[in-house]
Here is the input.
Amino acid sequence: MISLPTPAIIPLRGGPVARWGVLGPGGIAEDWVSALHRHTDQRVLAVASRSAERSAAFAARHGIPRHYEGQDALLQDPDVDVVYIAAPHAQHHPLALATIAAGKHVLIEKPIALDAAQAEEIADAARAAGVFAMEAMWSRYLPQSHLVAQLLAEGELGDVRLATAHLGWQWEYDPADRNFDPAAGGGVMIDAGVYSLWFAHSVLGAATAVSARGSLAPTGVETEAVILLENERGAHAAVSASCTIDTPGLAAVHGSTGSVHFETSFVFPAVLRIARGGDEVQWRDESGLVGRDGLAWQAAAVATYLAEGRTQSPLHSLDDSLAVMRTLDEVRRQIGSL
Here is the structure.
């Protein structure tokens, strides 16, 4: 009979509360603020957009007391503790640097930047300023990710030799869409593939060898990628990303004495099957959160980290973000989209 540890998660309620500001009130910000306000004690104090009308409408929808036109007004608000950057990919780097320069803590929607060079600038600036900075790799804070991390740390799967992660969602090709615009950070790797690379990194650590094949859109951004990774111990990961097909988003970890199989998408609150010694047990997220409701976990974690005086996440550090971005850059270089 397999006995599983209880995931060591930070509770959604009853812990420290931060005063949040939001830059970029788009689609992901809608889901993020909604998840926060419905499932945690965290509250958004202010929102800013280049459009005063847009920020006012967003604030009205979510009960946010302050709304601003332009980033500077929000960054100068002395009551805002931490800023969530939810703008499109190409704006992550400049907005993160501006937030750090204003002395604010920052949570940057994934990917942390367009490439590793930009990510290094953000990390260096945050370290120099002594502020908290974190990439919003929200799936790392879901209960299933805590469980997998504990199984790995306790050696319950033995010598882990292989991780797999395959993620795809279908986009209709439109050269005017930012998803297909190289200057806007288009391409499937930076949007979806970063999840697959993160999963492999979370299991095996930094990749020391990368081999990638893929396909390109007429605009030059990648639409599919199949990637083989190797770490310093010679363990491997096989991951993929596609915007030409939909996939169920399944992932797995295989060790010498046990394995973990995601029966639903590894990106969202999930159902797992754990096999060891001829036995199997199913585990499912019992929080009641589904889909992007799971964004709530990372916000509660950030508030706790701030209360503890941390300057980065102990679960997905700035170095982790940099390692994933370096691998992502190498994948795109090999495919020909970078």
